[in-house]
């Protein structure tokens, strides 16, 4: 359980740690319950369990903290339907939910749709895979630049946020509180 003020309670300490460790360009996979998370993570990514949570719930919380990559055309991707599902005209309304959440977080791009096995190969290169309780439809996010060291005084690195470029004032206000009011510093 997370006991930090302003941090969404659905984000476990393991997931918060992974988000903090990710660098720009690193990817995070929010996997459904049927995704081979353990097998994929045997190839390198960290496996984080969130079995009782849904992807939309986690995505909303993650986007409050994680800046998306603005240097790529589409920083978020879903596994596309297989041909048989396309032929049956299978509807995927959760993709609209993902797009709405991404838009609220300031993303202006559409979801990339990746072929199933290409998605698996890409997931093997992700920083982490979050295995959720969703029955179907996973999502991959690419992290952008977020925090940069801006000054050094008296043996202290002062970290300031660069999140103000986000269009969402809620996210911007939250991050200003988190980085400026708490005055995050690293001593060395």
Automatic annotation (TrEMBL):
Assigned keywords, A-Z: Isomerase
Swiss-Prot/TrEMBL catalytic activity: alpha-L-fucose = beta-L-fucose
UniProt superkingdom: Eukaryota
Entry EC no(s): 5.1.3.29
One Gene Ontology term from the biological process aspect of the record: fucose metabolic process
GO MF term list: fucose binding; L-fucose mutarotase activity
Pfam families assigned to the protein according to its UniProt record, in alphabetical order: RbsD_FucU
GO cellular component: cytosol
Keyword Isomerase in record: yes
Signal peptide residues on this chain, from the entry's feature table: none
Enzyme class: isomerase
The keyword Isomerase is annotated on this UniProt entry: yes
InterPro entries for the chain: RbsD-like_sf, RbsD/FucU_mutarotase, RbsD_FucU
SUPFAM superfamilies in the record: RbsD-like
Family to which the UniProt record says this protein belongs: Belongs to the RbsD / FucU family.
Protein known as: Fucose mutarotase
């Amino acid at each position: 359980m997370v006991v930090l003020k302003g941090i969404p309670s659905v984000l476990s300490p393991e997931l918060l740690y992974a988000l903090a460790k990710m660098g720009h360009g690193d990817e995070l996979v929010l996997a459904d319950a049927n995704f081979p998370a353990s097998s994929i993570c045997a190839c390198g990514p960290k496996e984080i369990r969130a079995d009782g949570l849904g992807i939309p719930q986690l995505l909303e919380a993650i986007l409050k903290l994680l800046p998306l990559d603005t240097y790529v055309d589409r920083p978020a991707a879903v596994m596309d339907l297989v041909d048989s599902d396309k032929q049956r005209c299978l509807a995927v309304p959760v993709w609209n939910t993902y797009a709405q959440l991404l838009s609220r977080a300031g993303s202006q791009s559409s979801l990339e749709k990746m072929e199933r096995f290409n998605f698996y190969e890409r997931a093997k290169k992700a920083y982490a895979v979050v295995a959720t309780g969703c029955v179907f439809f996973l999502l991959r996010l690419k992290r952008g630049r977020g925090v940069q060291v801006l000054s050094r005084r008296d043996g202290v690195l002062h970290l300031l946020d660069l999140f103000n470029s986000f269009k969402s004032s809620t996210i911007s206000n939250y991050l200003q509180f988190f980085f400026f009011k708490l005055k995050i510093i690293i001593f060395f």
